[in-house]
Amino acid sequence: MLIIIGCGNSNRSDDGAGVAVAQRLLAALRERPQPRVQVFDAGTGGLDVMFQARGAARLIIVDAAKSGAEAGAIFCVPGNEVVFSYEPSWNLHDFRWNHAIAAGRKIFRENFPSDVTVYLIEAESFAYGLELTPAVASSVDRVTAEISDAIYSYPGSG
Q1: Domain total in the chain
Q2: Closest to 108 measured CA to CA, from 146, 154, 56
Q3: Which of 52, 104, 106, 133 could form a disulfide with 112 if both were Cys (CB 3.0 to 4.6 A apart)?
């Protein structure tokens, strides 16, 4: 099973990049279903990522980033390079997808994907708003197309 999870807050402009990718992929799968592929919009909930990823052979996560790179830059990173252990706190909002991968591997062991890819799209703005900036919108199109290729070439897809 290939699982794709879009993360972010679509009420904060470019922070919704991962959610936008997930929504576009969900629409494509409604038109052309793939039985071994699932797509989820996890919003900002790291726990959702952990539980949705359980049982996948391959996991793709898409989120916005703010690293100082040019807006719209796309980083495709192996999951092992962005996984962090989680230090417990009273605020579950601090438990993000990168913590979810580490925790999922500890909790679910062999039932958690070892093949993880993360797409990070460099944001221009995290201001309140429903629209992506032009540079990020263009990158969302490119990432959606690249992941669509992965979906339709995934073993068992037709």
Answers
A1: 1
A2: 56
A3: 104
For residue 130, is it within any domain? no
Antiparallel, parallel or unpaired: β 58-65 and 2-7: parallel
Q: Report the CATH number that the domain containing residue 38 is assigned in CATH.
A: 3.40.50.1450
What is the token pair recorded at 95? 């438990």
DSSP state of 129: B
- In our burial notation (b when 16+ CB lie closer than 10 A, e otherwise), range 103-139 reads bbbeeeeeebbeebbbbbbbbbbeeeeeebbebbeeb
Output 137 or 99, whichever has higher pLDDT. Answer: 137
Residue 23 parent element (H or E): helix 17-31
Give residues with Cβ within 8 angstroms of 127, minimum separation 6: 12, 13
Q: Say whether pTM exceeds 0.85.
A: yes
- Token pair in block for residue 100: 């979810």
